[in-house]
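Let's study a protein:

===
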Amino acid sequence: MKIGIVGLPNVGKSTLFNALTKSYAAPAENFPFCTIEPNVGIVDVKDPRMVALSEMSKTQKIVYAHTEFVDIAGLVKGASKGEGLGNKFLSHIREVDAIVQVLRHFQDTDIVHVEGGVDPLRDREIINTELIFADLEQIEKSLPALQKKAKISQNKDDGKVVAILEKIQEVLNRGELANTIRSELSAEDLKLIRSYNFLTLKPFVYALNIAQEDLANAEVLKSEYEAKLNAPVAIVCVKLESEMMEFSAEERAEFINELLEISGEKKIPTLDDLISLAFNQLGLMYYFTTGEKETRAWTIPLNSTAPQAAGAIHSDFERGFIKAEVISTEKLLEAGSRSAARDKGQIRLEGKDYIVQDGDVIVFKFNV
């Protein structure tokens, strides 16, 4: 799964990407046969529960869930008509599964804003308008011929596609993103229009790039902009992240703890928040396995059954699924060990209809 980072020039987009790929990069040895492009970073989805499980199991290594972030060239007004990198930008963004849009909130006279002043809501409108225009143009090119074909052939699928495109066109003409009606489209609907790869149908997350002096107001700003944007918002301070870019994990944790003591805040927003939020918007979750060799997160779609979850480890696990031994991370950590949890009767035996929950720790029984 790929997440594209987009934004106007000079909003901190590329610095954010650099911070993600340096501070949160997944170990290369986990992807021995992958060729990673310069503008693509594979990033760990850090989860403190895995550290606790690892300590309990005396694990040799931790393998986090991961996702790919793609740094997409800066967009400018008129991109849908070929301005700036225009079509190149739009073709790159079509290839991703979700979009993180970086909005500049910080003030800095040394970094000139392309629109002359800082206004996150205006910037959002510029980018979204270009994406809407691109999707509208695609519909306007294909819809008339498809309407004619559906009328002549009486093909049921053609008729369905026409109805879906007309519905999306109506939304776009109102200046809204197609993802505002995504919940109204069935899995079959989405499959029928998959080849169109609409930009505005993708899940969106907004990254509000704030100044370091605004960190104390992070939660207030998050609530304010989630209401204004009607979408998920992650607060980031790219300047702070860039300063921590070369830190080790221990130095980073120590530095953040110092900031917490100085500010008196309970939490400092970090890129962990953005990574987790973007990951969740992809409709993904993970469960854990833990032992002496490794503690690992296995990525699965939301609402996966136990056999489907087992298939994330190996297709044989799914094919030969018998049962799953399941316990929540919280209960396992409270018990102190798997054997102690078993003695307390806290490990459940689940069958093929069980819907795996976030943070389940599972051992699968299978036979092939």
